[in-house]
Amino acid sequence: MNKIYALLLFLLPCFGVAQHALAQGGKTTGRAYLGYAKYDDQIWEWDGLSLDHDAKVGCAIVLTREQLLPYIGGTITGLRVGWDTSQQTGTYEGFVRQTFNGEDLTTGNPTTVRYNYNDSNPGWNNVPLTRYEIPADVEQLVVGFTTRLKKDLCAIPLLYPHEVPNSCYLWVEGDVDASGNPNWVDMCQRGTLPILLAIQDTQGSFNFLPVITSLTTDGVVLTETASSGLLRLRNVGSQPINSLELTSRQGEQTFSKNVSLSKAIAVGTASSSIMVPICCFHSGDVEFSITKVNGNELAQPVTTDVPFIGIPDDVAAQYTRRPLVEYYESENSYMAPRYYDEYVGPSLRGKLGRMTFVCQHLDDQFMTGDDDATVLALRLCDGDSSKVSIPAMTIDRAMSTDNLLFQQNATTNPMFDVLLEPYATQTFNAALTHPTFVGVDVQGLLLDGGQTLNATATADIAPGILPAGQQQRMTVYLMEREVETDSQLFWTEEEKTEHQGHYVHANVIREILSSPEGDPIDGDGNSQFTYSTQPDPDWNADNLYLVAFVHRDGALGGKAMHVLNSAEAELTLDDGIRSLATDGAQHPHDATLYDLTGRPVRTADARHGIYVVGGKKTVIR
């Protein structure tokens, strides 16, 4: 097998079954194309498998019993397969077997295959097989073809994605096992083979077959209240889908709702994101099911489990939610602060008094040098670096706003592109309405003329809400606002000449006082954490402040790092007088100011001096 080579193919990911409807004998029936590619995947010329010598090869996929169950009783009529060069035609001999080297259950005559630019889907070919009915006791089917490849002639295309189990098995003439049988090798890391099994539905038995490809939710919701999820389906039945009945179940408690689709899901296609209602009755998994399609009850409802933290109304009313908004940037790029000034900052104005904002710098120029932000970004994307896009944002490390606003593929990845208006306001307002069962507070005291900082963070967690076995963590940052830098990286000298200069980073993490993944919180109720550090003398003490937030276990990755609440506080000087910034665009405080005679003063009108805020003396600098 080491003589087979694969070229990269840049296609959208796909998986599942493609179908089209047809009429036969007055009954509406369909034909399914079952495999790991899509019916309409684009095949690019000269992208695929080649040999450095002439040889016969075999290509196959394995369809499991679970995949075949909906199609039992259907009739296999042929294959739909790919060819990727217009320079020469080829010949495919299709087969269907129970095992790789077993008996052929159905075969056909050798079929000429070609790459025709004039086709709507160039490269795809139909290979007829003798008719074979899928039996009730089927365990698996090995589906594929053999062909003869010529040296350096690409003939077998590979599709994206890679690493899909059972999607690519290869054999080269002369490669045999100890028993002398062809040695089929799993090569799914190279890609997905364009092999689809054609199954005709002569009885209309798989008319309505939706498959849930993804379902994303907020994860923390009010109990006994329908919340919204984003559902994506693939229609693998033989009829278009116009409406769905959706049912949420926990134990004996159920909630059902019929949803009419604004656009029908055509046969063999995937839906865009569909806003669907889901009801959670208590913390734990909700069994979410599609129970009817087009008003027809499904004999086997399509079901998936959705984990929730459910908060009763009376508990949520005791807490105020302060979302954590994080902006991920490369601090050595001159474009990062400009991007903030032009896009991120304006969308946050007027909201920072109710939200906590943190810049996560991936270069660690200003911070610890331990690549903490890079590690965090990778964890949020479940270790897949291809999903990390900079600059990016997260809200509570949980919201999938790209899916909601732009109807893109639903994903468990909570990172998304920077929000622009009007989407930013819509999304931030939505985040502010999310319930919580956690209160957070943080305080900081500067001692010894500012040489030492003592910080205290507290968490107040309502009992009986978090599902058993789940842990929460406290993370605390020492922050500095308005950090100037003249250190930037440039691609060209021309770019350096034009853009080099001083730039300001709005909110910089100077030090992670807790462990980077957060310190574990022991159970419900009140917990307190204390930290001490020596701020760097080069930092501007007047611009230092603290951020603390409680989140689910940071080691889990993805949305399991959900932030449940946050807090932010200025530092108090050791004489009992604390510092207060006046720049409302960067760090607004809506608390009423009083002068030392007790008269109220508007923050915007306050001059430098000592005022009283919340019963404490405060210095305005």
| Beta-strand segment tally | 39
Q: Mean pLDDT, nearest integer?
A: 81
Gyration radius over CA = 30 Å
Helix content: under 10%
The parts where pLDDT drops under 50 for at least 5 residues are 1-28, 402-411, 581-591
Structural class: mainly beta
- Quaternary state, please? single chain
Question: Ends: how far apart?
Answer: 72 Å
| Tertiary shape | elongated
User: What does the main sheet amount to?
Assistant: 8 strands, mixed
Number of helices: 7
Strand content: 35-45%
Task: Give the secondary structure arrangement, pairings included.
Elements lengths: L4 E2 L9 E9 L2 E9 L12 E3 L4 E10 H4 L6 E8 L7 E8 L6 E4 L3 E3 L10 E10 L6 E10 L6 E2 L11 E4 L12 E2 L8 E7 L8 E8 L2 E3 L3 E10 L5 E10 L2 E13 L8 E6 L4 E10 L2 E16 L1 H4 L7 E6 L5 H14 L7 E6 L10 H9 L11 E4 L5 H6 L16 H10 L5 E10 L4 E10 L10 E14 L7 H7 L3 E10 L6 E3 L3 E9 L10 E9 L10 E11 L4 E3 L12 E2 L5 E2 L7 E5 L2 E5 L1
Parallel strand pairs: 17-23, 24-25, 27-34, 35-39
Antiparallel strand pairs: 1-4, 2-3, 3-15, 4-12, 5-11, 5-13, 6-10, 6-15, 7-8, 7-9, 7-11, 13-14, 16-18, 18-21, 19-20, 19-22, 22-23, 24-26, 27-28, 28-32, 29-30, 29-31, 29-33, 33-34, 36-37, 38-39
